Amino acid sequence: MSYRVKLDVFDGPLELLLHLLEQDKLDIRDIEISRITQQYLDYLATMQEYDLEVTGDFLVMAARLLQIKVGALLPEAERESEPEEHEIIYSRDELIRRLLVYRQFREAAQKLAELALRRSQVYVRPVSLLGPKGPVVYTNPVGDATVQDLASIYANTLLNWQAREEVRQVKRRTIDLTAKIGEIALLVQKYSQLAFDELLGRQPTKTDIVYTLLAVLELVKQGIVRVQQSDVNEPIIISFEKEQEDYVAPEG
């Protein structure tokens, strides 16, 4: 017996987060980071299970959610330590602010779309009957862009403006993803299971979190490890699959 699974398609991570909150009928200001993080990761895992492409912005948001969750568990002294020069501060309050702004623009886009639809149903007399002589040439400066496209671009521009106010030249730190996959596989193979936080180290950067998440997702996809969490407030556990005991980690 076969069955079909229908997954909603979202324009970006903020829209997915709003959908998850609205699905549970929760107010944005009452967001519970542990719960929304698990729901978000579950959705990305489902997308990968059905071979749907998970774009970079969705993975970056996953890393940010994990960063906020990890930060909430740290002692106050460590939480108030100075961030790295290239790090963008991303807190629960900042996430709430972005969700509120995004929802505002999404609602505005919907209203504009409704107005455009109503406008398209209005009959206008031919230009020649209104007075001007000669052909009237109309131009479309936005091409094929929709009202939603324009609203989304404008919202993203406003959201990212603050981060662009101060630009610093920093040395980019590179991480070998293949080596990271091998490193995590060997660690989990050695200890049978580890918490996701243990894979990050004491003071992980945003880059560390993103690459660690990508490596774990790839190992899950290959069937090398499995991910589980007994409760939304409990740590995420990475376990080595027993049938993969002869697994040889790739070299970076």
Task: Describe the protein's topology.
Elements lengths: L12 H11 L9 H17 L6 H18 L2 H4 L12 H29 L26 H18 L12 H15 L1 E3 H5 L5 H16 L3 E4 L8 E4 L12
Antiparallel strand pairs: 1-3, 2-3
Helix pairs in contact: 1-5, 2-3, 3-9, 5-6, 7-9
Question: What does this molecule look like?
Answer:
Among the domains are: 13-73 and 85-110, no CATH class; 177-240, Arc Repressor Mutant, subunit A (Orthogonal Bundle), CATH 1.10.10.580. It contains 9 helices and 3 strands. It has helices at residues 13-23, 33-49, 56-73, 76-79, 92-120, 147-164, 177-191, 196-200, 206-221, and strands spanning 193-195, 225-228, 237-240. Strands 1-3-2 form a 3-stranded antiparallel β-sheet. α1 packs across α5 (92-120) and α5 (92-120) runs antiparallel to α6. The radius of gyration is 23 Å and the shape is elongated. Residues 1-6 and 82-89 have low confidence and may be disordered.
List keywords for this structure.
252 residues; mainly alpha; Arc Repressor Mutant, subunit A; 3-stranded antiparallel beta sheet; 9 helices; 3 strands
Strand ordering within the main sheet? 1-3-2
Task: Kindly name the structural category.
Answer: mainly alpha
Distance between the termini: 43 Å
Q: What is the alpha-carbon Rg in Å?
A: 23 Å
Percent of residues in helices = 40-55%
Q: Could you give the order of the helices and strands? A: HHHHHHHEHHEE
Relative strand content? under 5%
**What is the number of helical segments per DSSP (H or I, 4+ residues)?**
9
Q: How many individual β-strands? A: 3
| Morphology call | elongated
Q: How many strands, what sense, and barrel or not for the largest sheet?
A: 3 strands, antiparallel
Mean pLDDT: 72
